[in-house]
């Protein structure tokens, strides 16, 4: 079992093709930023994934907890700005830790 702390979120990267499939939209009908970091297509800045685990959120300087805004099972678009892949026994997929501020949108 993995428990994220603070504003960290564990994401299973699914890929942009999975987004098209999930929404039932033919490929290339949705135009999304497809910038890449240093020319590596596996490090595209905008990614699609599923939240595996989410921390409770960060604490402001005033001591108020600011929740992450996502829950396990949410599908999200997020900015991935580098290789932060992890392997965790018992959890399948391409797993990444990132901060909640890197999540751009929840896909319903």
Overview of the molecule:
It is a single chain. The chain is mainly beta. The protein has a single domain (8-107), classed as 10 Kd Chaperonin, Protein Cpn10, Chain O. It is built from one helix and ten strands; from the N terminus they run βαβββββββββ. The strands form three sheets. It has a six-stranded antiparallel β-sheet with strand order 8-9-1-4-7-10, covered by helices on one side. A two-stranded antiparallel sheet has the order 2-3.
Oligomer: single chain
Low-confidence stretches: none
Total of DSSP H or I helical runs spanning 4+ residues: 1
The tally of strands reads 10
* Main β-sheet description: 6 strands, antiparallel
CATH topology: 10 Kd Chaperonin, Protein Cpn10, Chain O
Rg, Å, rounded: 14 Å
**How do the strands of the widest beta sheet line up side by side?**
8-9-1-4-7-10
Within CATH, the superfamily carries the name GroES chaperonin
**Please, how many domains?**
1
Helix content: under 10%
Query: Could you tell me the mean pLDDT?
Result: 80
Into which percentage range does the β-strand content fall?
Answer: over 45%
H/E element sequence: EHEEEEEEEEE
């Amino acid at each position: 079992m993995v428990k994220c702390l603070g504003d960290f979120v564990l994401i299973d990267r699914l890929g942009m093709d999975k987004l098209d499939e999930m929404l039932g939209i033919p490929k290339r009908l949705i135009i999304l930023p497809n910038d890449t970091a240093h020319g590596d297509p596996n490090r595209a800045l905008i990614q699609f994934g599923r939240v595996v685990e989410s921390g409770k959120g960060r604490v402001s300087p005033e001591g108020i907890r600011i929740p992450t805004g996502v829950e396990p099972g949410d599908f999200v678009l997020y900015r991935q700005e580098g290789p932060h892949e992890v392997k965790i026994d018992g959890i399948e997929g391409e797993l990444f830790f990132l901060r909640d501020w890197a999540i751009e949108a929840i896909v319903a």
